[in-house]
Amino acid sequence: MTNQQPNNPLHGIKLETIVTELVEHYGWDGLGKRININCFKFDCSVKSSLKFLRKTQWARDKVENLYISTFCKK
User: Fold this and answer.
1) Tens-place pLDDT, residues 32-74
2) CA geometry: angle at 41 spanning 25 and 24, to 5°?
3) Which of 7, 74, 59 is nearest to 18 (CA)?
4) Residue 31 falls within a domain, yes or no?
């Protein structure tokens, strides 16, 4: 059974893809300036960022909102 989410712009997009595309667009410095979390400022890696974001909902929300405002404009 497939769960359709037609109004969710992030439906079907993995968190890893979101982080990778934001890093490619802004760089780690730019991402750290936009979202003030240490995994974007010190010893940055996609793997460490994913570990943190999967445990920390408020940070994940900020990352998802930045992704939507950057890449999902209509």
Assistant:
1) 999 999 999 999 999 999 999 999 999 999 999 999 999 987 5
2) 15
3) 59
4) yes
Q: Tally the domains of the chain.
A: 1
What single-letter amino acid sits at 68?
A: I
- Which tokens hold the place of 49? 């960022």
Helices (H), ranges, the chain? 15-34, 46-55, 57-71
Pick 32 or 6 by higher pLDDT.
32
Cα torsion 29, 59, 49, 26 to 10°: value is: -30
Whether residue 53 is contained in a domain is answered as yes
Contact 3, 53 (CB under 8 A): no
- Domain hosting 60: range is 15-71
Distance, in Å, from the CA atom of 23 to the CA atom of 44, rounded to the nearest integer, reads 10
Tell whether pTM > 0.85. Answer: yes
9: tokens are: 């712009």
